[in-house]
Amino acid sequence: MGLPKIPIQLSCFFFFVATIQAYTVFKPKCSAPTAEANYVAAPDSRGTLDILLKSIFTIFACTWTIHHPNVPRQYHGYVDQNPKSKLCGYLNLGPLSWRLKGFLKSTGRMILTIFAPEVIIAVAYNDRLATREDHELLDKLAEGEEGGKVEWSLDHTYYANMGGFVIKKTNAEAETGNGYNLHHLSGRDVYILRKKRCIGKLPNITQRELKDRVKSDSLIKAISISQIIWSTARILDRTVYGLAICALELTVLAFALCAIAIYWLYWDKPKSIGVSTTIDRLISYERIKDILVEARTRAYSTRHIFSLKRTRAFSSRSEAVDGAPLRIDTIREGKEFDNKTFWALLVGVVLFGGIHVGGWRV
């Protein structure tokens, strides 16, 4: 006669009970004031839950609020005005699916930052270098515009490199792009096309109008930065006075320093602009694509930082000029850009990893 079989659920229950009993719990006793008081100081001990909640909140602030995404695909940019906005390819909730897609992209960027914050530092630094190089060209172009100088600032160049300027396709041309009738241009694309008189004059958007398009709340940004700085100062203070810090707090310190570096690199970049600006084109769309292919092959090139195959241009003509919104992980190539981006990546690795290594002595 065999032994009775124990249900798997019951086995799991006993396993978790045994695991929980293996932990010890310390409950500090804090008596109430014996006399009436206007202010009661916090106890001089820290609870596990206090450390956990503060650490999680700071890591969230370090990985969610630091991102400055590019201009997304426009909801109104489809010929049939009914874009394919199914969530995960199955659930179609119309505009709600469109918003959920944006939320999932933000979540993906946060997860990437948790696993590899040094990559975000490298991308932000490359973006800063490319924007400052393009700004010199576009600023001179804005000064020589017909009818007087067009207002142009570093914010405008960042907006251009975010894919904020678009040209509109005809309905027939949009059919080759899944019905999307907008072509997003980079800052260098705008410069090349305007220099060759392929598009109309640069849009006269004031810096105030551009800042009004920013979705970022200054108060939320200030709270996030304050929380990051406060957590960093608190952990460093405990380290200086020889007080104990846990491994999670070391991780918080590493994320906080990386977040401060990313905030500094993105300081001039507008945050979360969701609206594009249309530029009139003066020639056919096919001719514009030919010019962009030639420019991206000879003048400059870009690639995705996670691309395993490194190319000086795009792998195909359609990939080079598909006009899709610019990906946030797109970096500018070139000897100078590659070297500086590599050093920025190395600094990020040392900054994030060095804190954990240094924590072995704490």
UniProtKB/TrEMBL annotation:
Annotated membrane-spanning segments are 241-266, 342-360
Leader sequence range is: 1-22
Q: Which UniProt keywords apply?
A: Membrane, Signal, Transmembrane, Transmembrane helix
| PANTHER family per the UniProt record, alphabetical | TRANSCRIPTION FACTOR DOMAIN-CONTAINING PROTEIN
Q: What is this protein called?
A: Uncharacterized protein
What species does this protein belong to? Trichoderma asperellum (strain ATCC 204424 / CBS 433.97 / NBRC 101777)
